[in-house]
Amino acid sequence: MVKLISILFFIVAVSLSMVSCKKNNLLSKKNLSFSVDTLVFDTVFTTIGSTTKQFKIYNKESKTVQIDEIELVGGESSPFRMNVDGLMGTKMTNIKLEGKDSLFVFVEVTLDINSQSLPLIIEDSIRFRTNGKDQYVKLAVWGQDAYFHYKDLNEGTWPNDKPHVIYGYAAVDSAKTLNIQAGTQVHLHKNAIFYVYKSTLNVQGTIGNEVVFQGDRLEQDYQDISGQYYGIYFQEARPSTIDYAIIKNGTSGVHLFSEDPTNSGYTLTMTNTIIQNQARYGVFIYSGAKVKAENCIISKNGTHALLVLEGGDFNFNHCDLLGYGASPNPAVGISNFFTNYQTATTNVGSINEGVLYNCVVSGSLATEMAIDTIQLAGVTLNFDFKNCLIKSETIQTDSFYQSIIWNNNPLFTDPSIYDFSFLVNSPLNGNGFATSVITDIFGNPRNNPPDIGAIELN
User: Fold this and answer.
1) Fewest CB atoms less than 10 Å from the CB: which of 15, 34, 171, 305?
2) How far apart are CA 28 and CA 253, in angstroms?
3) Exposed (0-12), middle (13-18) or buried (19+): which is 168, by Cβ within 10 Å?
4) Average of pLDDT values for 154-160?
């Protein structure tokens, strides 16, 4: 009898094990798919408001999948609320989704927009854990009254009565023109980019009413944090202008790749503009783009104030191209080639116009300018540096260096707080030469002879 009971127990145990194995084999080991990766609430709130949006979860496999956890990451403190197929809460467990089936997730958000402490964009996410893997759907809602741009195309003229906030990207598409009026405040979210593709961008600031590009974190702790967004990217752009702008705390302030082949002039003309505290480059000219800059201060960037790579043209007059950041790289880097080490290829371009007039190239390093070029048949290198102050361990003797002040301290008032005015005994005072630039970045008249740099001592 005992033997029979043991045999029955063994049979039951094996049967249960087989059922368990069969049950496990019936469940898919794959993960989920979603109708969106980011659920954006693009309604602008002006009072206490609430709105609902939805997305779908898909099981694209033939077997049932078990969703071990669905969690609103912000929990009870989140302004968002979720409903998964009729179930409400901040966390659900062990939800089965049949093969080739889907579930709706409804998300609601409520904000008191009258609270001015709200950030421009409020985010959370929903975490889905399936078969040991976490997947996320981001949630984003506009937190203040502004114009919001989420992966949109733009043309015409932006109004300037409210800030513009870019989430993902704002683009100016081929053959279009966008004008940004004086006083416009442009805030870019993390990793966001302002993209100008085969088109024209005109930034039209004025003295004291500049157009400001910065991140969307308004807290005091973020006032001097670089890398909060990417920057302004021109790809094969038509002639564009930036006048009286402040571009700060991004990754690459102005990045230019090539230009429209029908354009015989400059890709970008930039005047009276401050670019500071970028995580990498202030101005990046790549593969044939052409930039003219006057009365600009580009300083304290992570890699270079000005980088020219694989050729391109530049004409900078009365500009401050400065280091003073934590970078071990010089403020100015100029090269007419680029080597792709993955493909073992080197592309070489021309620099038909390489002009620095009345410019300051200085910083905290011993050398703040590096030039590395390759001369090939059919490749043009045409440099013209005149009446500049340049910091360099090696005093260069090439003929294109004319009336250069080597290694003198410009005696700036306080570079640590971006104050690049200077004392009367500075070597910048009165050592420039007169050009068509008759005022400085602050609108003050230039003396004759003028001072070197963007600021005139009056």
Assistant:
1) 15
2) 47
3) middle
4) 97
144's tokens: 């203040």
Query: Are 389 and 347 contacting, i.e. CB atoms less than 8 angstroms apart?
Result: no
CA 311 to centroid of chain Cα atoms: 23
d(CA 98, CA 60): 9
Structure-token match 């260096």, residue found = 401
Q: Over the stretch 58-104, which tens digit does the pLDDT of each residue have?
A: 999 999 999 999 999 999 999 999 999 889 999 999 999 999 999 99
Angle at 446 between CA 444 and CA 452, to 5 degrees: 110
Which DSSP state fits 22? Answer: H
pTM: 0.81
Angle of CA points 38, 134, 30, to nearest 5°: 100
Three-state helix/strand/coil letters over 126-176: EEEEECCEEEEEEEEEECCCCEEEEEEECCEEECCCCCEEEEEEEEECCCC
> What DSSP element (H or E) covers 2?
helix 2-26
In b/e form, how buried is each residue of 276-288, taking b as 16+ CB within 10 angstroms?
bbbbbbbbbbbbb
Give Cβ neighbours of residue 312 (< 8 Å, ≥ 6 apart).
256, 285, 286, 287, 288, 289, 290, 291, 349, 351
d(Cα 266, Cα 260) in Å, to the nearest integer?
10
Give the helix, strand, coil percentages of the chain, each rounded to 5: 5, 50, 45
Q: Which residue has the tokens 């620095």?
A: 356
pLDDT tens track for 26-50: 677 889 999 999 999 865 444 445 6
β-bridge mates for residue 55, sequence order = 105
In order of their start, the domains of the chain are: 33-142 (2.60.40.10), 147-422 (2.160.20)
